[in-house]
Amino acid sequence: MSYLEYTVKSVPTGPRKILYLNWPLALLLATVACIGFLMLYSVAGGSMTPWSEPQMKRFAVGFAMMLGVGLVPIWFWRNISVVAYLVSLALLVAVELFGSVGMGAQRWIDLGVMRLQPSEVMKITLVMLLAAYYDWLPLARTSRPIWVLIPLAFIMVPVYLVLTQPDLGTAILLIAAGGIVMFLAGVHWAYFAAVAAAGIGLVTAVFKSRGTDWQLLADYQFRRIDTFLDPSTDPLGAGYHITQSKIALGSGGWTGRGFMQGTQSRLNFLPEKHTDFIFTTLAEEFGFIGAISLLGLYALIIMFCIASAMSNRDRFSSLLTLGVAATFFLFFAVNMSMVMGLAPVVGVPLPLVSYGGSAMLILLLGFGMVQSAHVHRPR
Amino acid sequence: MKRPGRDTILSHKRINRRGLILGAGQAGFLGLLAWRMRHLQVDQADQFRLLADENRIKIRLIPPARGQIYDRNGRVVAENVPSYRIMMERDEAGDVDAVIARLGRLVDLDPDEVEKAREEMRRSGLHPVTIADRVSWEELSRVAVNAPALPGVRPEVGLSRRYPMHEEYAHVVGYVGPVSDYDLEKMDAPDQLLLIPRFQIGKVGLEKQREEMLRGKAGTKRVEQNAAGRVMRELDRRAGVPGKDIQIATDSALQSYVHARLSGESAAAVVLDCQTGDILASVSAPGFDSNLFVRGISVADYRALLDNKYRPLPNKAVQGVYPPGSTFKMVTALAALEDGQVLPDDTVYCPGHLEVSGRRFHCWKRAGHGNVDLMRSLRESCDVYYYELALRTGIEKITAMAKRLGLGVEHDIAMSSVSEGLMPTKAWKRAARGEEWVIGDSVNSAIGQGFTLASPLQLAVMAARIATGREVKPRLIKSIDGVEAPTGHGDDLGLNENNLRQIRRAMYAVSNNRRGTAYRSRIIEDGYRMAGKTGTSQVRNITAAERAAGVVRNSDLPWERRDHALFVDYAPADAPRVAVSVVVEHGGGGSTVAAPIARDITLQALYGGPPPLEAYPARDRPRIQTQQKKLREQQLSRSGKLDDRA
């Protein structure tokens, strides 16, 4: 029984709640989204279609949804988290069975109005479930092996389903987000140290095995790793994306080439310029100043979330807020690392900027719950 | 208000602590991202900016217009005409086979050309290649109209060489053709232009000799390309330098007449202007159509040219060398006169042969000429007189005189394979043959047989130099871009004027004295009379047995064993304007075959068009009249045919 239930009376009620929403956070999210509209307008060659306008409509819906979710009491979201998790798990299985095949992978269910990506939904519901789990679990049991294995199972089941799609990027995000929530809940250091050691050991073993009889990866997989480590070895093949992306970024310089003046994106040298690689266009056209500004906005969003979580003494609320923030962080950190050549190319969009409906809606849903936690925090 | 439980406070503290640790980790990672951004965008900005420009900016060459070639009267000899072609780019076409199949329904595609284009596309994906050259305007429009169905295909207008006179200038001007790998291998640092597939360069003749001048300098344009290689816009352009226009010294009307007059023979003729050395005409017959080579000649056509026994390809006028025969006698005579070995009135007795170190050298007249002086020796072309002069003068002096008169030296004109000919010396024979010079060699050389070889151009130069006493130099290029080239007027040769006058008198007698060897081919119009010399050079040895049985007549011999017929002349005899040489390969006798041709050419050159019949001896006029009519018809029908083709 959490502390929350005893203090509901101090929580604002009715329309007054609107005043208690985390407005700075909402404003920051809207600002980032506006940068997204601008970039989508630019990569379309100065046109609202085909990307900028639909993105605006979706954001408007998502933003309204975020505020709506924020007004619903946080305990409602805590209470439905198990159901939400089970539903998204069911959707993942469904996509496995009936999903459409896009980009060589089964990822979405066509709802008619929009395409639903269950793996996106899972990113939020997993965080919800883990937060609810640790809210329920007595503190003393947090680091007991059996109570560590249960949330591990919560994480690994959807990860397995996502991997079979196959979608490595989402799988990694799920593991990282889940791991972060477990870490925040106070699971003992030793578990993380053990996992880290095992991971390093595995990577070493994989590389050591290369060229021997017991080689752990296929040759083509090794070649992909090579291409990531040194894109110049395959400048027209897999290395092409990353090379062109770095050229676009680098040629921006301090102040960039000016709005709609980026030659790399305008002349189609950039791949996926409206989705995963949209950051390169921003960096090319607005330079280091533009890129670092976006990074700063993202950092502010994370900071507001952390501040909100730290002022909130409800366990579920804090864990959920930090978990959503961590997911958000993982999105843009992985995306930026990828386009800057720090990480291999895995399909992770730049949150709120890349063109794409379900990822944005799900994120805004998550931030809606962050708003709810903020409004309904015990005072 | 209830106070929070102990558990709650503990948990709150722990979450806050771990949250701060996580936040610190995230801040660290953000720092890493910012550092990386700075590294790429600030530290390496210049380098990446360069790479971005390399990506998008491509430099394309603009081929310059090739210089045109005109004759002395401004008539076009080689010009550039727009040629329509269809280009194809593999990357834009996508499915190459399907596009080619669709294109084939609109345009007549040559299977060889398509195969060549496919091969070129396989090698270079981004460069457009020619898939159909020289298509008609109708075909081009059909392709343009259907452009949406033909991705990667685009019609293009370029310039292509055209020779409006077709055959007549084939040897002088030569031709251009697509640059080949072989051409490129021969060059150290080929011009970027030459790397354009099928760029046309001069292959032979003036086109090759003045290639650099005619080609000009390429301009460049910088274009912006997208990732697919499609040109988005032109950034700037630097104009090239067009090739220089060259005016050559020839007179196309005369060139055309000479070409027609020589048709049917394997022959060559050169007409020089005695004052300037201008090559008024230089013809090698038979000719070939230079236009055939411009886009690469077909194997069948080329084989036909190679298999022709009259050898149309080499330029016999400057490249072909022949024993000059009796036309060489002026050289021997001048050498002896200058050396003081003989006086014009000295006589030599000709019994029909001369015995030299045990070998018998025959005069062409078996019965002999009796007592012969210089005048008679040239007029009646007595061989024995010159055998005697050779014995007195020696080969070295004869060869030296030959070289002063332009034989055995390579004349500097812008044609291919200009031959040096051969004027032998003792040292030459030792070096080339490894044998000592024998006196018989001198005797043979004296009448232009043996080792001596000369080209028709050299013989014409010799005639011009005898006529003027100056070192006349042949000149092909009259002006370049309107700037007059130095003339070949030449300085005085320093020969004794009296000796020259004796030679000229004798040459005048050759074609004007009743007993002269070319009397039948005389010009009777006063003021246009010519001075000439016949020559008949053997291409076989006449054995003693054959001589005893009677020399076989030329008309009874197979073509390739008959004698070469030669004639050199200049006219008018008293104030020389033109010098002419004619060589008819295996034509028979100089007086019967070469002299009439040379006379007709000389008259044509002097009158600047068809001469009046009055210039011919009365007896010949009916024959000449029909001949002129025939030639005119021939020229007319040819030019009519050419217009159809053009």
Describe the structure in your own words.
The complex is a heterodimer of chains A (379) and B (646). With 379 residues, chain A is mainly alpha-helical. Chain A has helices spanning 17-20, 23-43, 52-71, 74-98, 118-136, 145-163, 168-185, 189-208, 219-229, 239-252, 263-266, 278-310, 315-339, 357-375; strands at 100-102, 105-110, 115-116. Chain A has a three-stranded antiparallel sheet with strand order 1-2-3. In chain A, a hairpin with a 2-residue loop joins strand 1 and strand 2 (105-110). The mean pLDDT of chain A is 85. In chain B, 40% of the residues lie in helices and 19% in strands. Chain B is built from 23 helices and 21 strands. In chain B, the strands form six sheets. In chain B, strands 2, 3, 4, 5, 10, 17 and 18 form a seven-stranded mixed sheet that branches. The radius of gyration of chain B is 37 Å and the shape is elongated.
